[in-house]
Recover the amino acids of this structure.
């Protein structure tokens, strides 16, 4: 089967540091071109990775007849615009998260998919990692009992005034940059959408973005999820899943190194028994994500993540924002 031929729209850090290196080792696809608004940056990136063609504009990628699919790592506020343009140009689209800043934007993207017939997916790479497949298998087995609560923390320090994360006009801030991960984790574990959200947000006085966001989500049956994300706190990545019999702790749930074993710790709370650690073999979630998307293109089968799932994520993000503004519980 011929490999899917890819173009990269942008030279953002996530692309050059994580995604492109992984895609260059992937099976079933080939990166044939990269574009930047700066032609020199595009040429440098192409030379660095051995990519055959570079373009000094994003439109150059869209006009290239050889390219079948594009990866979009642009700033958040440009995701929908360029995803639609790419699909209308006949390209399949894998786009960074959050896919949209508003529900209406996501609905426009769904309409575009249905109209063009092109495959469009949000790059929630954690859904491709085997550690989450193992976690969800443990939950589904009933081994830890009924899961009633999930807690997620994702914090880091980013004080760079040039970073798009600190640019409010470009959809920056902790919620959009980091909150998508614990929200996705809770939705995966419960296999459902939250009904209500309550949140508090601390705004950076200089950047104008949320530097600390905490939220509670209520799922069907009274199940609960809490999350805390920050771009100005000591680094911490953690998910805790609480069942009626045991809990699960995951210390690197969102971005484990591709050469590291992942640890899933199960604990029944007994003082007489040590916690059990289960190891998941190293895996490159960015490579797996690209391979699975490419395979879906070739087979015509379902995508790992459909836009309807991303619509649910956008609804949660907006409910959290509304709650922080109103000071009340908001319906998702």
């Amino acid at each position: 089967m011929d490999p899917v031929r890819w173009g990269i729209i942008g030279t953002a850090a996530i692309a050059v540091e994580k995604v492109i290196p992984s895609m260059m080792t992937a099976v079933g696809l080939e990166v044939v071109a990269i574009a930047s608004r700066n032609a020199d940056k595009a040429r440098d990136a192409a030379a660095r990775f051995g990519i055959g063609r570079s373009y000094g504009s994003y439109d150059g990628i869209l006009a290239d007849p050889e390219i079948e699919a594009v990866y979009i790592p642009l700033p958040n506020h440009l995701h929908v615009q360029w995803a639609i343009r790419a699909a209308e140009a006949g390209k399949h689209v894998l786009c960074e998260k959050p896919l949209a800043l508003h529900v209406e934007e996501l609905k426009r993207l769904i309409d575009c998919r249905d109209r063009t017939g092109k495959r469009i997916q949000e790059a929630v790479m954690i859904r491709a990692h085997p550690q989450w497949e193992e976690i969800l298998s443990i939950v589904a087995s009933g081994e830890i009992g009924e899961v009633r609560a999930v807690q997620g923390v994702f914090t880091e320090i980013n004080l760079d005034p040039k970073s798009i994360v600190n640019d409010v006009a470009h959809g920056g801030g902790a919620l959009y940059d980091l909150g998508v991960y614990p929200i996705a984790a809770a939705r995966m574990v419960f296999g459902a959408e939250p009904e209500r959200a309550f949140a508090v947000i601390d705004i950076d006085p200089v950047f104008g973005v949320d530097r600390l966001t905490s939220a509670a989500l209520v799922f069907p049956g009274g199940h609960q999820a809490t999350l805390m994300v920050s771009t100005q706190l000591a680094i911490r990545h953690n998910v805790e899943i609480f069942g009626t019999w045991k809990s699960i702790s995951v210390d690197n749930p969102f971005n484990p190194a591709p050469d590291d074993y992942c640890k899933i710790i199960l604990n029944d709370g007994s003082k007489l028994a040590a916690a059990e650690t289960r190891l998941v073999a190293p895996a490159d979630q960015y490579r797996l994500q690209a391979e699975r998307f490419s395979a879906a293109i070739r087979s015509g089968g379902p995508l790992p993540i459909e836009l309807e799932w991303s619509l649910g994520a956008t609804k949660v993000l907006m409910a959290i924002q509304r709650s922080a503004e109103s000071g009340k519980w908001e319906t998702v």
Notes: Residues 127-286+315-331 form a domain with the Dihydrodipicolinate Reductase; domain 2 fold (CATH 3.30.360.10). The chain has two domains: 4-123, 127-286+315-331. The longest strand covers residues 232-243.
